[in-house]
Amino acid sequence: MKQITSAQNPYIKQLVQLQEKAKARRQSGTFIIEGQRELELARKGGYELETVLFVPEMLSETQVSAIAGTKPEYIQISREVYQKLAYRDTTEGVIAIAKTKSLSLMDLVLKENPLILVAEATEKPGNLGAMLRTADAAKLDAVIIANPKTDMYNPNVVRSSVGCLFTNNIATGTTDEVIDYLKKHHINIYCATLQDSAMYHEQEYKTGSALVVGTEATGLTQAWRDASTRNIIIPMQGEIDSMNVSVAAAILIFEAKRQRDFKL
Could you report the per-residue pLDDT of 205-215, keeping only the tens digit for each? Predict the structure, then answer.
């Protein structure tokens, strides 16, 4: 089995670029996954692992194979190399290079009367990851990112979603493309916005529904307000008129799930 002990190894330097640069991920069609649970969820989600690097003092070859399977190439690395690559403070001793997937709307398959979260132009990977985590908890039918500002395979998205990047049905597209897609599939559009809005809990989400949230700074673009079936609002009773977008999304999602009796 191949071994790498120096953090100055050219291959390790390539992986650092893969970790840090969205351009490197786009050009190679690969990204880095760190952590045992994340690797397990990636495999479950159908992601192909190309290479697995592990610290033998932390995990045995048998343990790593049980997590990542037998298909990837395995490389033993030193703790120094692992610390160079590891993105998280807590370490588990294993990192993998995986192939990205197409996130095209054209590849999105939905069941009848789907419940979908649409997030427009989310900039912070942490917010995106938190929404993916909530979407997994609610077992939404899909998460669609309109006008994405964050690389979906950013290590911060993988980390903050605790691997739920791999468990959700995800697609991306421009705002116009997403609106056209929803209308083509006869999905009601409920936009979380301050303008001309009704209370979110007074609407019915039992038929095909898309819950649409925008950025905390500017909210949704006019295209969404024009396309909306109904604008909705979460009542604010304090001094501010908005909340964290991932929190707002969670409130809307679980109201819709409540109306559906928490059935899949």
Answer: 999 999 999 99
